[in-house]
TrEMBL record, chain B:
This is Anti-sigma factor. Residues 85-106 are annotated as: Disordered. The lineage of its organism: Bacteria, Pseudomonadati, Pseudomonadota, Alphaproteobacteria, Caulobacterales. It comes from Caulobacter hibisci. Residues 85-94 have a biased composition (Basic and acidic residues).
Length: 166, 257
């Protein structure tokens, strides 16, 4: 196994975490992770040695998620609001349990609009720099910092609402 | 000095030029309100850094490990999803209503046929002749995606021992009990290796990988010949230690019951 594959294996826990933030539903998140791994392998020649593999893979994941969301939209799916959960039609006990087990901060994060949620996750959970996060999302720095600011403000308000003062 | 919210965020994120960072650090000592705003953001940052940390501690699903090592030298593994009791009903629904507006139509509908097709191709290509039959979806949707070993593969899995002479085209490697309490064995054919588990009287192939071929086409000793990717699948499934020769012989004699 070469270092590309090894690094990808090492990144798996973080890729799954990022997928959890994007997809919210654990099963969807693992499907998204799998799609990301498959795409990363087919686009391996686009990976530049010496650049961060995590940022590169987060970008692939983000694009895979956009493609996935579009294909769902084409199928006429109306996106469920976060309160209904991503599992509105899948009331399996296990999934409900996993929703209930979310911490206050995870629930507040899940309730953010997707663009803010992604910016917050890349910088504040994954620890990417502003530049790396902006590159991953293929957006200008100013757009990233404004999404980050709106996300933070909303999180702060939500957490204070719940009495879980950060 | 006036410090905007954006500057507070960037300060906490360490994204300001060093001189601005220093200026704000100095201002905090004289401005309790500013210090409180910064502290609140530091707290939020710390809280967020632990969000979904539970995912990091979870065992990685074998299918993802397999996907990450797919194409890696010296071997690649195709791991078939193991049917779990709670998924049976869902699987059946997917098969019957592929166009139903479920919450994850694109993933759920697209994937099983792909896996099933791969299983069929790979298994048909195993060493000499047909070694396993892809199992058709049963009425209750059970084991819809796991191929059943037949012919020499089934025979080796059923009666073979790791130490025994390689009388057929397939050798068995490690024998172990899975976390679900099933007997499982790794096997090695001329071109493919894999893992199979005993379920309801037959052997189901869970994963296959190109075999690690020995120089001169000779079989190597059990264990050393098993591709690393197959061993990774074993590591995910195994409960306790592999069976020793005596345990293996006893299980064969008892017909894997």
């Amino acid at each position: 196994m070469d270092s590309f594959h090894k690094d990808m294996l090492d990144l798996l826990p973080r890729l799954r975490r990022m997928a959890r933030v994007l997809a919210r539903d654990p099963a969807d998140a693992d499907d998204l992770t799998q799609l990301t791994l498959e795409r990363a392998l087919t686009r391996r020649d686009q990976w530049r040695e010496g650049t961060r593999q995590d940022s590169w893979m987060f970008r692939i994941m983000r694009n895979a998620w956009i493609d996935e969301s579009r294909s769902r939209a084409r199928r006429g799916r109306v996106l469920a609001p976060p309160e209904a959960g991503a599992n509105a039609a899948d009331p399996a006990a296990q999934t409900l349990d996993s929703r209930l087990a979310l911490t206050a901060v995870e629930a507040a994060l899940d309730a953010l609009p997707e663009d803010q949620r992604t910016a917050v996750a890349l910088v504040l959970i994954e620890g990417l720099s502003y530049q790396e996060a902006a590159d991953s999302l293929e957006i200008p720095m100013g757009t990233l910092t404004s999404r980050l600011a709106r996300g933070r403000t909303a999180l702060q308000a939500a957490l204070i609402d719940q009495g879980a003062r950060p | 000095m006036t410090v905007s919210d954006e500057e507070v965020f960037a300060y906490v994120d360490g994204e300001l030029p060093p001189e601005t960072m220093a200026r704000i650090t100095a201002a905090m000592t004289k401005d309790p309100a500013l210090a409180a705003r910064i502290q609140a953001q530091k707290d939020l940052r710390r809280l967020l850094s632990g969000a979904h940390a539970g995912v990091l501690r979870e065992a990685i699903p074998p299918k993802l490990k397999a996907a990450a090592t797919n194409g890696a030298k010296p071997a690649e593994v195709i791991a078939f999803p193991q049917p779990k009791p709670k998924e049976k009903a869902k699987d059946r629904i997917r098969v019957q209503k592929p166009a139903s507006p479920s919450t994850r139509p694109a993933f759920a509908v697209r994937k099983p046929p792909v896996w099933a097709a791969m299983a069929a191709c790979l298994v048909a290509g195993l060493a000499v002749g047909r070694l396993a039959l892809p199992s058709p979806p049963t009425a209750d949707g059970r084991a819809a995606e796991l191929p059943t070993a037949v012919g020499p593969l089934a025979q080796a899995l059923e009666d073979g021992t790791a130490a025994g002479a390689a009388s057929g085209p397939v050798r068995v490697g490690v024998t172990f009990k899975s976390q679900a309490g099933r007997y499982c064995r790794t096997f090695q054919g001329q071109t493919q290796a894999g893992v199979a588990c005993r379920a309801e009287g037959s052997w189901r192939v869970l994963a296959v990988s190109p075999a690690a071929t020995a120089a001169g086409g000779q079989y190597r000793q059990a264990g050393s010949e098993t591709p690393a990717a197959v061993m990774a699948v074993v590591d995910d499934m195994i409960a306790g230690a592999p069976l020793d020769a005596a345990g293996e012989a006893q299980a064969v004699k008892a017909g894997w019951r």
